[in-house]
């Protein structure tokens, strides 16, 4: 499995507007070959061992948009597609965003997603 995470800094007062962009999205990614899921993650305060990460730290405002794919090639085919270009060409209000967004990508090594595609064999006694 392959995961893409878009990290998007949003003006806190415009959070609802940002979330509505996804609630009202066209959804063309949903039908792409190899696409598994999309999640929009609302930021929450950073925690360390159940306590605030830093005293007086500013509240985070970075949303993450997580897409999961069967494999890296499926993801690359999506970003090269006309559907991708169309879905990312619609204008959005630039006053919703603060700072620069960036993307990270990951190959799933272990966890529920990895096990779904490659179940672990039961341990023998």
Describe the model:
By secondary structure, this protein is α+β, with helices and mostly antiparallel strands. It has one domain: 2-Layer Sandwich (Alpha-Beta Plaits), CATH 3.30.70. The protein contains 4 helices and 6 strands; from the N terminus they run E-H-E-E-E-E-H-H-E-H. The strands form 2 sheets. Strands 2-5-1-6 form a 4-stranded antiparallel β-sheet. It has a two-stranded antiparallel ribbon with strand order 3-4. The C terminus is likely disordered.
Strand share of the residues?
25-35%
The geometry reads as flat
How many DSSP E strands?
6
Number of helices: 4
Most strands sheet: 4 strands, antiparallel
CATH C-level class is Alpha Beta
CATH architecture title: 2-Layer Sandwich
Average of per-residue pLDDT values: 85
Number of domains: 1
Based on the structure, what is the oligomeric state of the protein chains? single chain
Helix content: 10-25%
- Tell me the radius of gyration: 17 Å
Order of helices and strands: EHEEEEHHEH
Spans of at least 5 consecutive residues whose pLDDT stays below 50 are 118-125
Annotation keywords:
125 residues, alpha+beta, Alpha-Beta Plaits, 4-stranded antiparallel β-sheet, 4 helices, 24% helix, flat
Task: Present the secondary structure layout.
Layout: E1 2-9, H1 15-23, E2 35-41, E3 47-48, E4 51-52, E5 62-69, H2 72-80, H3 82-87, E6 102-107, H4 112-117
Antiparallel strand pairs: 1-5, 1-6, 2-5, 3-4
In short:
With 125 residues, the protein is of the alpha+beta class. The protein has helices spanning 15-23, 72-80, 82-87, 112-117, and strands spanning 2-9, 35-41, 47-48, 51-52, 62-69, 102-107.
